[in-house]
Amino acid sequence: MNSVAGSETTPKIAILGAGPSGLLLARLLQQSPTFACQITIFELDPSRNARNQGGSLDLHPQQGQLALKEAGLWSQFLQHARPEGDVKKIVDGKGTVLFDENGMTKQVEADGIGERPEIDRDALRSILLDSVAPETVRWGSKVVAVSSTPASGEEKHDVVLADGTKEIGFDLVIGADGAWSKVRPLLTDVKPYYSGITALEGWAEDTHVRHPWLSEYVGAGSCFMFDEGRAVLAQRQGNGDIRIYACVRKPEDWLERESGLEGLEEVAAATKLTDEQFADCGQNTKRVVLESTDKVIPRKLWMLPVGMQWGSRPGLTLLGDAAHLMTPFAGVGVNLALQDSLQLARLLIAHPSDPALAVRQYEQTMFVYSKKFAEKTYAGLQGHFSGDGAAHFAGRLKRGHEAMRMKLDPVV
């Protein structure tokens, strides 16, 4: 059924994607006492529990944490945050442990939460879902296109769904719909490209009971092995499970044409990858991969060009991965997405009668800070997959701890 356009005083807003950025933006706008709007979030998933939302992530003070505070969700976040998970263990290709934060004293802020506490993606999404008006999210709404039509002298935008229906007359359509956004093509011809890295994601469930060695070896947070052309990233989840990502630098068609991984059952896929790509690594690194086979998923990692921009167009914009898709090698993806939502919400609330101005100002600011983090992420992509990647990362952690020790006890 076609919907009617919103009034001039109440902007009608469509958000594509019920991920962290889309939900946070809706929350911030709905809680504003001065900004009245109609918001619809179109979400592909049929329900909130239709699929797992991914692994654990850390929220940074001036990005994710700040956004949740302004959204009035800090107390909910504290109920799920895991400051104990903010520790890293770094291993080189031969299995030598170069640095291990497990058991080390780290700085704790006044609220006792630590600098970058972990939270599971499922928990973060639940917090955000529970914070928006129940009718906001349209579940099972796969968007296939966004189109534009003139209306009363102003351009309006329509959302076309997979079932053939069209929702019409939106003043602002916001693409928070990830790598393959349906809004981005209306702003730029640029598409994501293959980063050069393919990963085998592995799950180890109920590790305390079923995988006690793995649980002990990984530790309370993350365990990283970096080496020339390869890496193994292991991360503890809030429920005690562990997820690993065995990554290799390979051509784009390697997974389909050469790897032989597709179609194999979990243990066989992990064994084949280990034997062929990690055979000369330390025994512990290989064991991490081989014990994480409760579920195995091959993945290619995609990215947008560093510093990508587009010409502003009234009524359309992008958030999160739709705007600046990056690889995970700086750990800033969700933090940037939440920062985007906070910036856009502030400007829409500040300019309620001129959303086009708000969008322009948001994009100009977002292009600057996202480029900085995209450059950092690309440097991580290059550095982590080098022969001295582990030593370099461990050295940076050591210097950080030494600087903090001197700050806390300058007479040492």
TrEMBL record:
Keyword field: FAD, Flavoprotein, Monooxygenase, Oxidoreductase
Task: Give all residue intervals belonging to the FAD-binding domain.
Answer: 13-351
Q: Which organism is it from?
A: Cryoendolithus antarcticus
Q: Tell me the protein's name.
A: FAD-binding domain-containing protein
PANTHER family (UniProt xref) = FAD DEPENDENT OXIDOREDUCTASE DOMAIN-CONTAINING PROTEIN, MONOOXYGENASE ASQM-RELATED
Q: Where are the transmembrane segments?
A: none
Please give the Pfam families that the UniProt record associates with this protein.
Answer: FAD_binding_3
Q: Name one GO molecular function term.
A: FAD binding
